[in-house]
Amino acid sequence: MLNRRLIRIKAFKVLYSSVCSSSTSLRSIEEELLHACEETRRLYYFMLQLPVALSRLANERIELGLKKFQPTEEEKNPNRKFADNALAAMLRRNDIYMTFCESQGLLWDGEQWMAYVKKLFARLLQEEYFQKYMASPTSSLREDCALFSRIYQQEFEDDEDLEQMLEDASLYWVDDLGYVLNVILRTLSIVKSKEKLDLPPLFMKDDDRDFARELLVHSFAHYNEYLEMVKNNISNWDLDRLVVTDITLIIMGIAEAIRFDSIPVKVTINEYVEVSKFYSTQNSKVFVNGLLDRLI
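User: That's the sequence. What structure does it adopt?
Assistant: Structure tokens below.
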């Protein structure tokens, strides 16, 4: 699930936080890094619950219509295609997945979350692609996966309500939402072709957990040493004027180049330059690129 760039970002955030708080506990930052990684998996499991929540809501609406004293023809003969969609059924049948979600509180069953699901469902009813799906006479897992892929692609971008709710639920979730949605799209693509749900492991490669830990530990242990290297290689700059995020990224870049000599230097530099674009100042990419290249 977690690729190397996201691992670097999580290690960077933990290291930056420890520098700002003057934390000196190696064990605490290791635990924080693993927790941050686990939160991405929890968000993935949570967002993957949406088909279950939406189909449950659709079933409830159908049952309410059937219980009316004078139901309309549409209510007496409801279109159950979405309510009984195969993707939601597949998720519900996965005992390991559902047990994890239930034990971790990752169901869309709270008042606030259900209010959002109702709002989302009302929005879907107005979408042309959803109406075409409902009008189609066929039903298949492939078709259901295609529908939910469209929903995940189109309905959550720049959704301020969702972002606020996710931030309230976990400080880790908002920054990871875009990444998690892409992982879900890959999952749906696999389900559509294999007709089987395979939940991805936390780390994409077997050695990525060790990479995450060793990158953070080496950066933390040698922070002051590499900080001196930075000081000795900047001219006309007072260290206090440098952005702490830039310094942290440069130190991590040095640490990665020294600790992981199997990773090409150009790859290492490029990765930290890319991270600086999102987590530092407008001019940081030039500064990080130039100083990292010189130091390494």
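The chain has 16 helices and no strands.
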